[in-house]
């Protein structure tokens, strides 16, 4: 059966946007985009491209934060090096430093368990459930009642979907809650690390080159999906066997060239292109500056705290990498907003919409009140966003966070499962246990204390009436020395053991961090209820305003695609460089550029075997005839955001030609507004991946499995 996603308004399906490159499209939008896709160079049938029952889209998978794809009939999954980095780190220790040296399993038996909580989610369905989600939702409901009704409907839909064994389902809003879709995925729980190149390839250039062009990074790695012998999804077991996917991507044997059509398919995380002008202005004038500074201070504190301690350095490597990556992205977004006059764009678009609404009494009656309500709610929410940045830093203290999760789990277990908060239902038990287990390889008490103390300094900057007074009093009464000396939560067995204890056991506990969690709970719960009430009112106003925006776009012959929200999307564009005043970016980087950057130190320290072969021009069959050398990375105009990391890049025939792994710093403002002049995505070329596998690491077994002829 082909899945045509019938969206709530036909305005979505009228025409392609002004720039073909713009848009994170739903699979069901391919019929309406068909002519434009063909004109852009697609050689597949648009209907086949949108079919979730066949390749290429049913070979695309989610890792729950990154995207990936099946590239063999034996469940081999290709994604970014930075997407498997947590598993590389988790399996590393002094004397076994896979972060530096890389990892290659010579046989299936040598493949190691990925970090606890690792998942591979296989897309099966994406269907409109708007009617079921909005059942019983009326304008008469209070904000909190509206929120609770929507949440109750959502949980019912998920529960019904997950009656199918081993399925993970979720319902997400589109256009501010104008439309809802249920995404159904097969959840594969046994994920194993198969191969990751040395850090000097997978992270070549480090933070210096992050979000930059030219780039020479082999940002790729491989997992494998395992299932029980009968083919059902099951937790790790030595008796499990490789999963047999319904489809997998063919590795392209025709080289990419400048101007070629390319697509990216994956699960982009979050964009804010439909936010109001007031929200965007507040974000860039206040929120981002604070957020960037908080992340910079966090990274600096980690670096200082782990200095001279190799074990702690390895334990915090993944956390540090994530913080550094995001703080640099924030700087790029701030600069990019200025470069494209983002605030001016949003002000003009907002004014145009309001003029259109005011020009017709019927439109004023339909959308005017919702606009006024949304304006008021945005003003109310803005300060809460600033406060939450500083309040949330307490979550960096891993034992405090663990204790809070455990006590909340105990409190929620007092309710029937259907009435529990999302994230604390029976379906979430295993994922909570795995998150608590991860701490054992990502925690050092001395480092944790430093980060907790730093977080308390930020927390104290929030107005007293917004802070949690009982929590502060308990911290002061216990003191930091006793807190870390007397707790047993640093022990994994003790930590996991609390999952089966009732709330009364927590309330009687003498463990310092458990006491903090108990003290914090009432205030945190009250704040959560206030946030729910506001969220319910926001949904009512925003969904109606978005209905107006869709109608406004339709009146102009434009298409609106929904903001990214973690569901399956595809985007398309072409391989192309960029020119700006005094600078030309060619679309490909090459082996010569990598060698020129090599210093043998720090972030530019590729393995000697790789450098020797590159200098000798031992490129094998991977030489590009037109370039006369080995391509490493390339640029395209496809439209991506966070969550697209690891997304397969496909050519016009739907064949694998690399992986999307980054954007350029001046283009990351695309989370807020796409600009064809500056937006570029960086991909690792499949030829550099295959060359590294064959010539540097001897991964012939995997090449053969992927159907690469040698």
Write the layout of secondary structure elements.
Layout: H1 30-40, H2 46-49, E1 60-62, E2 67-70, E3 76-79, H3 81-90, H4 98-101, E4 103-104, E5 112-113, E6 120-128, H5 130-133, H6 143-161, E7 167-174, E8 179-188, E9 190-196, H7 199-202, H8 206-209, E10 221-227, E11 241-242, E12 261-266, H9 277-306, H10 310-315, H11 317-339, H12 342-358, H13 361-391, H14 398-412, H15 429-438, H16 445-459, H17 469-478, H18 480-486, H19 492-497, H20 503-507, H21 512-555, E13 569-574, E14 578-580, E15 583-585, E16 588-590, H22 591-597, H23 608-615, E17 631-636, E18 648-650, E19 656-663, E20 681-685, H24 686-696, H25 700-705
Antiparallel strand pairs: 1-2, 1-6, 2-3, 3-10, 4-9, 5-9, 6-8, 7-8, 9-10, 10-11, 12-13, 12-18, 14-15, 16-17, 17-20, 18-19, 19-20
Explain what you see:
The chain is built from 25 helices and 20 strands. The chain is an alpha+beta fold and 710 residues long. Strands 1, 2, 3, 4, 5, 6, 7, 8, 9, 10 and 11 form an eleven-stranded antiparallel β-sheet that branches. A seven-stranded antiparallel β-sheet has the order 13-12-18-19-20-17-16. Strand 2 (67-70) and strand 3 (76-79) form a beta hairpin. Helix 9 packs antiparallel against helix 11 and helix 9 (277-306) runs antiparallel to helix 16. It is globular, with a radius of gyration of 25 Å. Residues 1-19 have low confidence and may be disordered.
């Amino acid at each position: 059966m082909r899945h045509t996603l019938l969206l709530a308004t036909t305005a979505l399906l009228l025409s392609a946007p002004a720039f073909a490159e713009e848009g994170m499209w739903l699979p069901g939008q391919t019929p309406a985009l068909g002519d434009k896709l063909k004109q852009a160079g697609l050689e597949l049938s648009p209907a086949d491209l949108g079919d979730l029952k066949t390749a290429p889209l049913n070979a695309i998978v989610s890792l729950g934060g990154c995207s990936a794809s099946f590239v063999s009939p034996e469940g081999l999954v290709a994604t970014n090096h930075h997407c498997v980095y947590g598993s590389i780190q988790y399996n590393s220790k002094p004397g076994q430093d896979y972060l530096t040296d890389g990892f290659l399993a010579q046989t299936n038996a040598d493949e190691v368990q990925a970090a606890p909580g690792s998942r591979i989610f296989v897309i099966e369905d994406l269907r409109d459930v708007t009617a079921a989600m909005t059942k019983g939702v009326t304008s008469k409901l209070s904000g909190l009642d509206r929120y609770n009704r929507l949440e109750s409907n959502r949980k019912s839909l998920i529960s019904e979907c997950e009656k199918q064994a081993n399925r993970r389902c979720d319902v997400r809003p589109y256009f501010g809650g104008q439309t809802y879709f249920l995404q159904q995925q097969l959840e594969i729980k046994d994920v194993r690390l198969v191969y990751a190149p040395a850090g000097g390839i997978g992270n070549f250039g480090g933070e210096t080159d992050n979000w930059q062009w030219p780039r020479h990074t082999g940002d790729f790695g491989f997992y494998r999906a395992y299932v029980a012998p009968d083919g059902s999804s099951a937790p790790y077991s030595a008796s499990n066997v490789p999963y047999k996917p319904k489809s997998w991507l063919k590795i392209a044997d025709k080289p990419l060239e400048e101007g070629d059509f390319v697509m990216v398919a994956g699960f982009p995380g979050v964009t804010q292109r439909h936010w109001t002008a007031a929200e965007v202005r507040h974000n860039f004038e206040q929120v981002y500056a604070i957020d960037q500074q908080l992340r910079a201070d966090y990274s600096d504190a980690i670096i200082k705290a782990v200095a001279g301690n190799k074990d702690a350095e390895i334990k915090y490597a993944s956390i540090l990498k994530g913080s550094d990556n995001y703080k640099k992205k924030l700087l790029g977004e701030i600069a990019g907003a200025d470069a494209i006059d983002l605030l001016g764009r949003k002000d003009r678009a907002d004014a145009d919409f309001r003029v259109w609404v005011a020009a017709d009494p019927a439109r004023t009656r339909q959308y005017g009140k919702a606009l006024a309500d949304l304006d008021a709610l945005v003003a109310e929410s803005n300060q809460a966003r600033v406060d939450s940045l500083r309040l949330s830093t307490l979550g960096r203290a891993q034992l405090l966070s663990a204790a809070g999760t455990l006590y909340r789990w105990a409190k929620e277990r007092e309710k029937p499962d259907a009435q529990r908060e999302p994230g604390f239902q029976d379906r979430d038990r295993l994922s909570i246990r795995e998150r608590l287990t991860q701490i054992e390889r990502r925690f050092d008490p001395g480092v944790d204390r430093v980060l907790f103390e730093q977080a308390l300094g930020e927390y104290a900057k929030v107005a007293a009436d917004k802070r949690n007074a009982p929590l502060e009093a308990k911290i002061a009464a216990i003191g930091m020395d006793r807190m870390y000396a007397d707790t047993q939560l640093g022990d994994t067995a003790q930590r996991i053991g609390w999952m089966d204890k009732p709330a009364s056991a927590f309330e009687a506990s003498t463990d310092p961090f458990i006491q903090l969690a108990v003290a914090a709970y009432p205030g945190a719960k009250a704040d959560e209820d206030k946030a729910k009430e506001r969220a319910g009112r926001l949904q009512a106003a925003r969904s109606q305003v978005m209905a107006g925006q869709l109608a406004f776009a339709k009146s102009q012959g434009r298409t609106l695609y929904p903001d990214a929200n973690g569901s399956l999307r595809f985007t398309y564009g072409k391989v192309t460089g960029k020119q700006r005043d005094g600078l030309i970016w060619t679309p490909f980087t090459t082996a010569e550029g990598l060698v020129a950057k090599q210093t043998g130190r720090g972030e530019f320290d590729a393995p000697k075997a790789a450098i020797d072969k590159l200098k000798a021009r031992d490129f094998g069959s991977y030489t590009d005839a037109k370039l006369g050398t080995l391509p490493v990375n390339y640029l395209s105009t496809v439209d991506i955001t966070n969550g697209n990391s690891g997304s397969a890049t496909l050519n016009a025939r739907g064949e694998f030609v690399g992986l999307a792994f980054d954007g350029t710093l001046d283009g990351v403002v695309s989370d807020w507004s796409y600009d064809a002049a500056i937006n570029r995505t960086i991909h690792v070329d499949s030829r550099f991946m295959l060359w590294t596998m064959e010539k540097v690491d001897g991964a012939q077994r995997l090449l053969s499995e992927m159907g690469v002829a040698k």
